[in-house]
Amino acid sequence: MSERVGTFDGVHRRNLSKLLGLVHLEGPLSRARLTAATGLNRSTVAALAGELVDLGLVEERAPDPTNRVGRPSPVIAPHPGVTAIAVNPEVDAVTIAAVGLDGRIPVRERIEVDHLVTPEETARLVAEELGRWRTGALRRARIVAVGLAVPGLVRASDGLVRFAPHLEWRDAPLRTLVEAATGLPTVVGNDASLGAMAEHLFGAGRGVDDIIYLNGGASGIGGGLIVHGLAVGGAGGYAGEFGQNRPGIASADDRRVPSGVLEDEVSRARLLEVAGLAAADEPTLAAALAASDSPDVTAELARQRRILSTALANAVNVLNPSLVVLGGFLATVAASDPDALAVAVAEQAMPAAAEDLDVRVAALGEDRLAIGAAELAFQALLEDPLQVA
């Protein structure tokens, strides 16, 4: 008897997870569409939707009045109050955002710093910002967890930051520190891997199963991999560190750092320098470069494109993706002449591997890391709504 009850309970939890996941990924859906998508019968979907409403995870809305065919079907949508806190510590700023289960970002704060933040300071900043939001923008929110997107090697098993070189963190127990400071469940992941997940689920890689994603930030270049629709983390969770590879540079005039790695040569700091900026967020840097008629800007963008194209061609030869997505300052480098970049990659890759390749910039823009960190934070809720609720 206990086995039958346990089996029923497991199926029930999976069905709740399935419905909540669908409205999270697709947005508001009618009960009729949920019935078709899940293969469950109408009464089961109605009961599951009602339970998710009672749990405060979704809300039921009136049918679309423009749908005049057949019996009107209520619409199920993620509850707008269900929220995750997303954090991205960098060398020049700590960005903190609230991300709803419905994908909205109601509030965001970029806290600029003139020093390298420590793990302890990061936890304190998150707690302080969250305290202000709880009495203001998030006073009615149900905050389920904190997700951190860190530019470094994060151990998958426990979220320990093994090494974040530009932040100078080693074996940092960031998850424990943030949980203690906020009182909230906390998860930690590599920033580029989380950006890859966000773009795969909601952005430029939506519906694509084989993706290479490269993220360019203040701390250098990281990457994420989606293979057959699944994120690839490697044995310890450290896969995708494209920025630490040594690029092939055909012209000695293009090299700036002897024996340098990719992120030494394709560099946000060098773009800031030619743009005449000491610091800037992503949109500001992109706008400054686009508006400039300086030959130094043109030359630096072209140099970085050439080196980036070789790195991408090598990755294409190894992994044979159908899509490459570039985020952060790499999107700016690519957007300066997307056709030239695509041609250069195709010329250096094996013809068969490159014949159906598409190269795109990240569709989520500066939201990609926040959405990726929030997705990690929502994971436990999405997998078992009853356990978290």
UniProtKB/TrEMBL annotation:
Pfam families: ROK. InterPro entries: ATPase_NBD, ROK, WH-like_DNA-bd_sf, WH_DNA-bd_sf. Belongs to the ROK (NagC/XylR) family. This is ROK family transcriptional regulator. It comes from Agromyces mariniharenae.
